[in-house]
Amino acid sequence: MPAGSIEASAGSGGDVSTKMMTARSSERSQITGWLKDPLFDLCFIFGIALLGSVMSGVTVIWPALFLTMLTAHTWLFGYDHLVATYTNLLGTPQDRLRNWRLIVLLPPLVFGCLYGIGRRYGLTGMYTMYFFGQFFHTVRQSWGIAQQYRHRAGGIPSDPMWLSEVTLWSVPLWGFLHRCTQQPEEFLYQQLWLPTVPVEVTVCGCLLSVGLWLYFGYTRLVAYRRGQLAIGHTLYMLSHLGIYLGGYILIEDISSGWLLVNVWHNVQYLMFVWLFNRRRFAGGIDPSSRSLSWLSQPGFRRAALYYLTCLFIATPAYYLVLRLGERIDGFYAQTVIPSAVLLSLSFTVHHYIVDGFIWKRRKHPAVL
Asked: What is the pLDDT of residues 248-303, one digit of tens each?
């Protein structure tokens, strides 16, 4: 073979090798599967978990501070995350047209149903309904976010979706069984009813969950050795494990455990919806939704203003729920607490139902 041909072959081989290395490098860079970037995602995964742990930990160490932490959580994150829901429900004229039934017809229906539950079963029935509802809602949101991480990683062939879902649900279900076996007398200062579950059933749930998570760890270790580890999805799943393990099993007091999960859930939702709106208005200011699209533009200041705007809207709503509750007469032969609970739960349950619609619509641009 002529020298020129040898050089050409060598050069061609070098190009092929370079391309292969570039492709492999590209695959490895994409396998991280961040929702946005390392800073955002590490704050999203670990920063929120740390915040929830600190707020909940304070109530474990100093139980007298629980009401203070509860008030701060409700004001700073609880009602704000409900406001974030309405940026998707009402954000643009198209949203309002598409969601008018959820806006107009659903709230009185929810209010009426909760009123009926309250009349029939009292505060215990309402709090029991809330405990079951928030459990399902928080786990479902976590599964949805895990799916977003899976999507950003380009799929995870070594981890079937059904197995991932069973693994994710296993520790919350084990925790729920643990609470049923524990039979706490109060939840958020009110009586709570939970079905009685024998300790043997809870132990079976524990063993199943431990087995699933050990297998999850094994598959991720194998993926790491092969250079195929989906970092974002793996870290998120581990944070989910830690939150539900702490919130439902390790923390003895049910209310303090609830606080851990709900701070994590609410702040997570605020950041996720901000990122959703950030991508929705990536093209710039939308004339049909100037305020929301302006708040959703790049930059830390806009993100801070987005949160402060949610807080600004949520604060009077929080105040009005408390004050309006004081003015409703003859409800349960009491006034302040039951009425405020009814109004607050109406907003919360409406949010649960609305979330189930707006994120599942196939034509809704929910995939980040």
From this structure: 999 999 999 999 999 999 999 999 999 999 998 988 898 888 888 898 898 889 99
Domains: count for the chain: 1
Q: In this structure, is residue 22 part of a structural domain? A: no
Structural domain boundaries, residue 79: 36-358
Residue 326's pLDDT is what?
59
| Secondary structure of the chain as H, E, C letters | CCHHHHHHHHHHHHHHHHHHHHHHHHHHHHCCCCCCCHHHHHHHHHHHHHHHHHHHHHHHHCHHHHHHHHHHHHHHHHHHHHHHHHHHHHCCHHHHHHCHHHHHCHHHHHHHHHHHHHHHHHHHHHHHHHHHHHHHHHHHHHHHHHHHHHHHCCCCCCCCHHHHHHHHHHHHHHHHHHHHHHCCCEECCEECCCCCCCHHHHHHHHHHHHHHHHHHHHHHHHHHHCCCCCHHHHHHHHHHHHHHHHHHHHCCCHHHHHHHHHHHHHHHHHHHHHHHHHHHCCCCCCHHHHHHHHHCCCCHHHHHHHHHHHHHHHHHHHHHHHHHHHHCCCECCECHHHHHHHHHHHHHHHHHHHHHHHCCCCCCCCCC
Residue 31 inside a domain? The answer is no
Whether residue 30 lies inside any domain: the answer is no
Residue 18 lies inside a defined structural domain of this protein: no
